[in-house]
Write a structure and sequence with these properties.
This protein is α+β, with helices and mostly antiparallel strands. 34% of the residues lie in helices and 26% in strands. Helix 10 packs antiparallel against helix 11. The protein is globular, with a radius of gyration of 19 Å.
């Protein structure tokens, strides 16, 4: 199918983009990497009158360290994050997750801002943002605001963004040196969207897990922070009984859905399988922040 007719404008600044959005509201649509939007246009799931191309706005891409915060511009591609020494050093969870996003050709064009704004619960970046307690930086006609990722994702494909907002950056607190991370997912084929995925962070000390964060991909309408399972693991040694309690808690934390290929019950089961695997990997090392010579 071909998309409905639309006008196209490439803008050079956030202000210019906001002017178009303010004029047309949800009759205009931003395009960044186009890796999701083009498919929705071709399937006529979306039929905007105007595409506002933000992909060349200077200053909206790049990865910067400022004190204990890493700021990733909205237009930074998945590939740039995958290859960034700064990310490997300070946010190893993102470095682990990036290669699992689609295929290299898509990672070369797709952007973190597009992924987080689109808010597909099967996407990797939204869950990483929730696990790392990131802050979403938004610019709208009335000015800027910052929203915690843990409240940004409201429902299926629904976020705090309004049709006249632009996501400009994401701020990540640097992962402390003693905190390890693991990102795991199960998919039908490499490069496919995950059936279920898990971002785990924790600080292991003398056999106990501290500062546990668990965020699931594909296990509910939004990236799911598994609060009860986190509480079941916090400050404990992950013995069989503790892991069993944590897996049981996932029944309260997650709301997996069914599709043509995978039932909700299977997703719920796989979420527990991933939890076991992730904790085992974390205790045998996981990925740690590191110094770069
Ligand atoms: C075959 C295929 C497989 C894929 N597999 C995966 C996968 O496994 N995991 C995964 O996470 N993703 C996957 N993707 C999606 C890919 O990661 C996209 O790149 C990403 O979701 C959207 O980024 P984009 O820059 O391409 O956004 P676009 O397609 O340009 O835009 C997506 C949506 O976000 C809005 N938007 C874009 N930028 C902004 C902004 N800065 N502020 C506000 N709104 C904005 C647009 O208006 C649009 O509604 C896949 C895509 C394809 C085609």
């Amino acid at each position: 199918m071909k998309p409905s007719a639309f006008d196209y404008v490439r803008v050079a600044s956030v202000e210019e983009a906001l002017a178009h959005l303010t004029e047309l509201g949800d009759r205009a649509r931003l395009i960044a990497g186009g890796q999701t939007l083009m498919a929705t246009l071709n399937m006529r799931l979306s039929a905007p009158e105007l595409l506002v191309d933000i992909s060349r706005i200077p200053g909206l891409s790049g990865i910067r360290l400022n004190g204990s915060t890493v700021t990733i511009g909205a237009l930074t591609t998945h590939r740039e994050i995958e290859r960034s020494p700064l990310v490997a050093q300070h946010l190893p969870l993102l470095a682990q997750a990036a290669p699992q996003i689609a295929h290299a050709a898509i990672r070369n064009s797709g952007t973190i801002g597009g992924s987080v704004a689109f808010a597909d619960p099967a996407a990797e970046w939204p869950a990483c943002c929730v696990a790392l307690d990131a802050t979403i930086v938004i610019q709208g006609p009335a000015g800027g605001r910052r929203v915690r990722a843990r409240t940004f994702f409201r429902n299926l494909y629904e976020t705090d963004l309004t049709p006249t907002d632009i996501l400009v950056a994401i701020e990540f607190p640097v992962t402390p040196l003693a905190r390890r991370s693991v990102f795991l997912e199960l998919s039908r084929r490499r490069g496919d969207y995950a059936i279920v995925g898990l971002a785990l962070l924790a600080r292991p000390a003398e056999g106990l897990l501290h500062e546990v964060a668990l965020a699931y991909v594909g296990a509910g309408p939004v990236p799911m922070l598994a609060r009860q399972a986190m509480a079941a693991l916090e400050g404990r040694a992950p013995a069989a009984s503790v892991m069993q309690a944590a897996r049981a808690a996932l029944a309260h934390d997650l709301q997996p859905g069914s599709d043509l290929y995978t039932s909700a019950a299977t997703r719920q089961h796989l979420a527990g399988v991933l939890l076991d695997r992730a904790v085992t990997q974390l205790l045998s090392g996981g990925a740690a922040p590191h110094a770069i010579a």
